[in-house]
Each structure stands twice: as C-alpha cells, then as structure tokens.
Design a protein that fits this description.
Distance between the termini: 31 Å
Low-confidence stretches: none
CATH class: Alpha Beta
Helix content: 25-40%
Mean pLDDT: 91
Oligomer: single chain
Number of helices: 8
CATH architecture: Alpha-Beta Complex
Shape: globular
Strand content: 15-25%
CATH superfamily: Spore Coat Polysaccharide Biosynthesis Protein SpsA, Chain A
Length: 225
C-alpha cells in the first residue's frame, strides 16, 4: 500500500526540513504533499528550493489554516492511506508502521495515535487538561472511548477521508473530522505514539481560543452534516 503524507506548514523555518528528512527516511512507499500556508518567516522561499520526485510542494498565498491546507493537499493525494504530519517535530514518523498496521490488516478504517498512552514529554498541565476535556466531550457526544481526540497523527483509508466534506479551515479540523468519522460508524483504532511537545516559546501555535472552537465543532457536528 502507498502512503500519502499530508504536511500543512506555517512559519516552520527552523523545523520543516528536518521534518521532511525524518518522513523521507521511513521505510514505507510514500508521497509527501507539503502545503505552505502563507508563511511569512522565510519558510516559503525554503520550500521553493525543494526538488525531489517524492515531495510535492503547494502554496497558499495567504494563511488560511490547517484545515484549508489539508483540503488542498488531499486533492493531490494518490496513496491508499493518508497520514497527517505536522512540520514542528513534535511527532515522530517512526510511528508510521504502528499507525498503518491496523488499516493494512483490514481491522481499521481510521487509526488515531495517542500521545497520552505512549512516550511523551511531561509539561504544560493546562494544555493536558484541555486535551483531556475535549476527548471526554467527544466520548460523551459520540459514545466512544478515545484518549486523544486532538492528536495530529490520524491515519485514514483514502476513500474514508475523501468521503467526508471538510469545512473547517483552522485547527477545528480535528474535532470536525472526528465527529464525522464516528457519525459514519467507521472502524477506529487507537495506538500509542511518541510525542515531544513544544511550548509557546518554541513556536507552539494552538491556544485556548482554539479549544473553544473545538468544543463548538464537536457539538455542532453531532447534529448537522
């Protein structure tokens, strides 16, 4: 099976090339589709210099958000399995085999990588509490038992992801896609992953406001779409 790695990028000048190197070293047949989402820190110029047959780079002229970047990348994906990969080095592509195994074996349609059941950096208590609350709300609304709804590492059968209309432009992609996956009764597995989270001084972008949007999305998509 061929893997399509979708990498939304916004102002990751210091990490994006290392992220691409790590993804490229994973021993799985793959394509990497990068979407520069209107970066303003020099990332755009850096990505324009990439010349690799396994990497496709696309550009948004202005910042539109993670969800919009994923929609753009997905339109160009030709693989059998999709994985979302941030460009900030918080997630380790060495976890790809564990993420795709349940799909390749026919046991799962979607696989979530749980940061809280794997090896992870210990920090940011309130960020942890926020993630736990959002996962609990997901479980209450959709009668499931996820431990990490907001994880970046989600692997999908390509037909599953392309069957869902993604409306969210920003970080509320995560609750929207989660809501629609469970409403459509797809088989979801969860596996432990490694997580090296960064703090805001290191470039972390998600804030408490994104948490409010996530709550709104979980409730909204429980009843519509």
């Amino acid at each position: 099976m061929k893997l399509s790695v979708l990498m939304p990028v916004y102002n990751e000048l210091g990490t994006v090339m290392e992220a691409l190197r790590r993804v490229g070293e994973t021993p799985i047949e793959k394509e990497i589709i990068v979407v520069d989402d209107g970066s303003t820190d020099g990332t755009t110029d850096l990505l324009k210099g990439i010349a690799s047959p396994g990497v496709k780079v696309l550009f948004h002229p202005v910042n539109r958000g993670k969800g919009a970047a994923i929609r753009t990348a997905l339109a160009h994906a030709t693989g059998d399995i999709i994985i979302i990969q941030d460009a900030d080095l918080e997630y380790n592509p060495s976890d790809y085999p564990a993420l795709v195994e349940p799909i390749m074996e026919g046991r799962a349609d979607v696989v979530y990588g749980s940061r809280f059941s794997g090896t992870h950096r210990v920090f940011l208590f309130w960020h942890y509490i926020g993630n736990r609350f959002l996962s609990l709300l997901t479980n209450v609304l959709y009668n499931t038992m996820l431990t990490d709804m907001e994880t970046c590492y989600k692997a999908f059968r390509v037909d599953v992801l392309k069957s869902v209309t993604i409306r969210s432009d920003r970080f509320n992609f995560e609750p929207e896609i989660t809501a629609k996956i469970f409403k459509r009764k797809f088989k979801v597995f969860e596996v432990p992953i490694n997580y090296s989270g960064r703090d805001y001084s290191e470039g972390k972008k998600i804030t408490w406001l994104d948490g409010i949007w996530a709550v709104a999305a979980l409730i909204k998509y429980r009843f519509v779409d």
